[in-house]
## 1
Amino acid sequence: MADTGGGGTLRARVDGILGTFEWADELEPGRLTENVSFGNVSSRVRMSNAAAIAELPADGAVPEIVPELPGFASLDPSGIPRALMDSAVKFFSGLSGGGDVDSFMASGCLFSLALFYEDGWDGGYGSFVIGRADAAQASFEIPVRFFSGDDLSGTCDDVRTSWILEGNSWKVDGIRREGSAGGAE
């Protein structure tokens, strides 16, 4: 069909319009043309979205994406038993506000808390986050970052605590200050 608008062909008009747009740089220039492999499928096999979805685990579970604080740790508390988490939150709350936390210390380990305070700890923090615990046998090492602000801002202090099961209760058998830094990024 002939173009009667006087602007030449339809293709010429589209090219004229496209020439006036200001385009941004591509974020992932090769993403639509590169070969991407999934699971144990060769990267030479071109996969559709449906085929990639079929490669997901049978139960539909997708690996969880957990945030982390730069220079600290992953914020994944999933490996911490519930009873330990409850004790840790109470302990860290008391520690952040300068409260009495002696009862959380394991037998014979109160000196560790005394050394911790001697290192200059005075509490006065508004909030804290608990990092991924390292588990070994019947003990856990839990990192925690304390923030001077209530919104994870301001100066922060990193502390590492070791926990053991004493009777039916989780107790701290070691605590040390890892360092201080500016606010979270």
## 2
Amino acid sequence: MHFEPLTRSILLELRHRGYNMLTAKSTETDHNPTWYPLSVPDISDYLLKLDYNLSIDALQQPQILVIEDALMPINDDQLEGEVFIEDNYHQGLQEKIQQYDKHYQFSSNPQQYNFSFDPQRILIRNHALHCGDHILYLKYLSLHYPQHVIDEMCDLEDVTRSLLCLDTKQAQEWFMTNNIAVMQSDIWICDEDAILKIVATQEDDHIWSFTDDNEELMNNLMVPKDILSLRDIFWIDPRMK
């Protein structure tokens, strides 16, 4: 993965890859935004949901750039910021699917898995959140879990708008500010792409016991102080359930 200056040629490349939008967490006053590509099934529907969420939470004001609109007559000097580019992103996903399949055998025993725990679905969802390829996840759901398409795609877009990427110091401060007691990963917690969600806060009336489950490749539970020793970058779903 790397970052490229936003140019017309980059927009053309992203459109060729199937992306139709760029989004940035920064506000419109930021003249050097960091853009992340998105591939959503319906741009108008996505923007309507975004407007609705902004009417509720005015603090969430991401920048949005529709690639097709940006490709209308425009010079490179009118484009600002850098774009996150995932290198060989499909190849990386396929390699992870093969790795996890060796552990879970979901290709040869699909009947053992359902929507709640389908390793391949979780891997594709993780990939969609990192790479913005929502359409790939939609295709998988439509084929295997059509009854979950609407709710799950809405949830994916909600996470996309709120997903945090923090360094160690920022993550430590965020854990302390929000009194986080336990986090859970989607994929293997030692993987730098693992997305963490809140399982418990310190106010919860629950005693957690932990087993050495890090040999498992999904749904690992861990306390913040241990998570902070794993890597330098942390992807966090900040929504409080």
## 3
Amino acid sequence: MLQGIGHVVRAVPGEVVYRSPELFSGKLMFVKRGFIVKAMMSPLHEDPLLVSLSGPGALCGAYEDLYVKDRMPRRHWCATSAELLCVHSELLLRICDQNPEWQKELRGYAASCAVSDRLAMVINQTAGLEERSAVFVLLVGLSTESGFLDSIDNPGVEWLSIPALPSRTSASHVLGASREQLGVVLRRFLAEDAIRLRAGRWWVKKSAFMPYWERLRPLIESSSVAP
């Protein structure tokens, strides 16, 4: 629905695409390609309080104006090269006020972003690197693949599809680990056939990831904003 009123912006890895609070910073962005790191910043420290991701099909930028008014400073930057569809959030909200179908779609976007942020809290609070990495993979799937949640609950589906994973460099920033440490975990998942790479897509074996998913399920089921 954003195609008719937005304009495409291309950004490079490391580029900051949104910062708040900032005058005239009400850009709401739909991620068409790439991954965006979303960080909630501390007013007193440089290190983020919370880090999550937006991938293809998700929102970044001023999306928090849609469902939260905590006024915490935020910074969003490119984990990879990215293509973003930008609109002004106030314009979008005015249009949605007049169109029930747009309101419904916008609520879906906001709900997905809110769930992704709450899942990121779980990642930050999980102790072991293997578990953090597995939860991170599930978060990417939930953020980027429509129908991912339905596939998890479908007993006839054994392999979950994810279009792409961020680079190890990007993942290391999110998970607080070195590229080498993440490489060890990834090789272990591949050796155990818990993850496969086929035709440019990643495939996650559901039975291998169910213990990690069970950690996340209560958070999603208890969330009033779950999609």
## 4
Amino acid sequence: MPSDTAGPPAPLRLLFIGGRPALRTALAASPRVEPVTDPAEAACALVDVASLTPTAHAEACRYPLPPSLPLVVVSAIGADRSTDANPYLAEVARAESTATRARADHCVLRCAPMDVDLVQVARQISDFSTVYGCFTDGPVPWLALDDLVDVVALLAAEPARRGDRVYELTGHETASLTRVVGRLASALNVRAEYHPLEADQLVTALCSSVGWDLDMALRVPGHQQWAGAGHPTSPLVGKALHRPPRPLDACITYAVAAVTRPRDDDQPTSTTKGNRS
């Protein structure tokens, strides 16, 4: 006898064009989407132009797509206000413009710094009990990667929510990097401090001490300055998902888990040479 109870909707087929490997992993784990590699099978495409590593960024900007395929673009909050003073934001802004140009059905998600951006911070704490960098110390509304995936799934499934719109996504709870370093250190059961460096000092340290290639290292100061800047919170995640965004504790847990499991491509290390976001 057939049941009158409808089952969960089938996952929406989503073409992930390029960007952070961590985002690809999160999409694969989501019950709401089914990543595919053939544009002909996809109901929507997703591209992440806010990745930090050169290889991931190049992948995200190198794609031919059927003009009729809807597109969701993951960008960085503040990309609309970018200047050449911050090379990271300027690069993201150019990529966002290229991705959306002449596309009839798209939307842009300008995201606050995310838990995946905290993974390298957690690694420094775990490896060196110190965080070196160019972060400022503003109130940052850290966004959980899983919340981004849930919003992407919603937008991919509901065309009326796209409509060439731009959304700013943040967490609901702000925390400065100094506070986050303390929370990460406590979770890792170590002591740690943050020591600011000038941009050229940071690039030299990443190349000589950590082993990153120069192209990757040159991107880091602008990314850190952007990530540590103060950003206002946005209510859009809560409105879209009808629940509060995941709390800062969830972002801390994500970053700690990433450094306590075997290393992968979530973050650049001396061995991966920048094959992360």
